[in-house]
Design brief:
With 164 residues, this protein is mainly alpha-helical. It has one domain. 82% of the residues lie in helices and 0% in strands. It has 6 helices and no strands. Helix 2 packs across helix 3, helix 2 packs parallel to helix 4 and helix 3 packs antiparallel against helix 6. The protein is globular, with a radius of gyration of 15 Å. The N and C termini lie far apart (37 Å). The mean pLDDT is 94. This is Yip1 domain-containing protein. Keywords: Membrane, Transmembrane, Transmembrane helix.
Length: 164
């Protein structure tokens, strides 16, 4: 388990790519569970358990669909398992770091430092997603950033349409 967490942390530090993850369904299920639990904790703070579960489910389906679609379009469907693992695992780590910030902000005390930290995490998430996409598609980092940006904006928009 420790080795898996360190692999995801190395992905977040741009030292490894999704191809460095083991081809393992157990790892995919573990990363989805970590994503779901940490995402639930973040969403539950503000929206209640039922809404949090629905949002996490939709978010997970969007992430799986995103990975599947980009890999099918690029004719690299064999990379789906590792790419999905990388996306879920790194999202879980970002959520882990964001959880205390979000919890603090819901108390009504939104400091400039908390806001800056949240923006920094959002940018880091974008960079990590771009890194994973560029490796998964064997494309340049800037191409990966562009695809990641489109995915993140589209998923934010869709989630806002569904849950606002």
């Amino acid at each position: 388990m420790y080795e898996w967490v360190m692999l995801f942390f190395d992905l977040c530090r741009f030292r490894k790519g999704p191809q460095d993850l083991p081809y393992s369904q157990a790892l995919l299920l573990s990363s989805i569970m970590a994503y779901a639990i940490l995402g639930f904790l973040m969403l539950y703070i503000d929206s209640g358990w039922f809404n949090a579960i629905i949002q996490i489910s939709v978010g997970a389906l969007l992430l799986l669909a995103f990975a599947k679609i980009i890999l099918l379009i690029s004719r690299k469907p064999g990379r789906f398992l590792q790419t999905s693992c990388a996306l879920f695992g790194t999202d879980a780590l970002i959520n882990f770091f964001a959880l205390p910030i979000i919890a603090g902000m819901t108390t009504g005390r939104v400091s400039l430092l908390a806001f800056a930290a949240l923006v920094a995490l959002m940018i880091w998430h974008w960079l990590i997603t771009g890194h994973i996409v560029s490796h998964a598609l064997s494309e340049s980092f800037s191409f990966g950033l562009g695809i990641a940006f489109l995915y993140i904006m589209a998923s934010y928009w869709l989630m806002a349409q569904l849950f606002s």
